[in-house]
Structure to design on (275 residues):
C-alpha cells in the first residue's frame, strides 16, 4: 500500500465515522429497521461533513456496539457494518477504512473487500493485550492469508500499545511491538495512540515508536490514533506520518456527537500549515 497514492498526500488526516448502535447491539433501538436507518443517515451526514471539511480519508467503526465482542462478531454485525460502509462509500469519493471492534480483523477485511475500501485498522494485530473484553490475541497469520485469498489490495493499519488495553508483560510492550507488527505481521502502517478514545499520546511514547522504526531500518508509516487536536497536530505531524481523528471533529468535542464541519476545516487547516 502506498500512502501518498491512496490518500493524495504523504501525511493524511483521516476522519472517524463512528457508527451508532447496530441492530442487535444493547443500545440499539428495539425496531431493527429503525436502528439501521438511523445508523445509515448519521453515517452519511458525518462523511459528507468530513469531506467538505477537507479530510483525506475516513475510517468507519462500529463504535456504538459496546460492550464489544473480543474478536468474532456475529454475522448480523458484519452485515450491518457492510451496509453502513456501502452507504458511506456511495456518499463520498474519499478512500475509506474499516475497523470492526473490538478486534475482528477477518470481518474488517471481508467488509473492506465487499465495499472496495482502502484499508482496515486492527487493534491487536500481533502479540496479545489485556482489555475490557479479556485477553485479546493478534491473528496476523489469518488476516494476511485472508487478504491473499480475497485478492484485494487492502492496507492493514496495526495498532501498537492500543488504547483501552494493557500489556501482558510488566515492562510494557509498546515501541518494541512496531517491529513485530511490521517485520513479522507485515502491517502496512502502525497506529500509536493514547490511553483511551480522545486521549492524547505522550510525546515520549510517540518518539519511542518512531525511534524503533528507525532502529530497525523500516519505512512503515506511523499514524497517531487518538487525542489529535488543532493545537497539537503540528507537533504530531513533525514526528508521525498521519493522524486518525474522531473526538476533536465532533460538535462540542463530544465523541458521540455529529461531525462538525467547521471543526474539521480548522483542524485540516492547521495540518496544511505543516505539510
Amino acid at each position: 500500500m502506498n500512502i501518498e497514492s491512496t490518500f493524495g498526500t504523504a501525511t493524511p488526516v483521516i476522519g472517524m465515522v463512528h457508527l451508532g448502535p447496530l441492530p442487535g447491539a444493547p443500545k440499539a433501538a428495539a425496531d431493527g429497521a429503525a436502528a439501521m436507518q438511523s445508523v445509515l443517515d448519521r453515517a452519511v451526514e458525518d462523511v459528507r461533513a468530513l469531506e467538505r471539511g477537507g479530510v483525506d480519508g475516513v475510517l468507519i467503526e462500529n463504535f456504538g456496539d459496546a460492550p464489544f465482542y473480543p474478536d468474532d462478531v456475529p454475522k448480523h454485525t458484519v452485515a450491518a457494518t457492510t451496509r453502513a460502509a456501502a452507504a458511506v462509500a456511495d456518499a463520498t469519493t474519499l478512500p475509506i477504512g474499516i475497523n470492526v471492534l473490538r478486534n475482528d480483523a477477518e470481518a474488517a477485511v471481508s467488509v473492506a473487500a465487499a465495499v472496495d475500501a482502502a484499508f482496515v485498522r486492527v487493534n491487536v494485530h500481533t502479540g496479545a493485550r489485556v482489555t475490557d473484553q479479556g485477553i485479546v490475541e493478534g491473528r496476523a497469520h489469518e488476516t494476511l492469508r485472508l487478504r491473499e485469498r480475497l485478492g484485494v489490495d487492502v492496507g492493514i493499519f496495526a495498532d501498537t500499545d492500543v488504547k483501552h488495553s494493557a500489556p501482558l508483560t510488566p515492562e510494557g510492550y509498546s515501541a518494541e511491538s512496531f517491529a513485530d507488527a511490521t517485520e513479522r505481521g507485515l502491517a502496512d502502517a502502525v497506529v500509536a495512540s493514547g490511553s483511551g478514545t480522545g486521549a492524547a499520546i505522550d510525546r515520549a511514547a510517540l518518539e519511542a515508536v518512531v525511534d524503533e522504526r528507525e532502529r530497525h531500518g523500516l519505512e512503515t508509516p506511523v499514524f497517531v490514533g487518538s487525542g489529535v487536536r488543532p493545537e497539537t497536530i503540528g507537533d504530531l505531524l513533525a514526528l508521525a506520518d498521519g493522524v486518525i481523528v474522531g473526538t476533536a471533529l465532533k460538535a462540542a468535542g463530544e465523541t458521540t456527537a455529529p461531525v462538525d464541519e467547521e471543526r474539521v476545516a480548522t483542524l485540516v487547516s492547521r495540518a496544511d500549515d505543516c505539510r
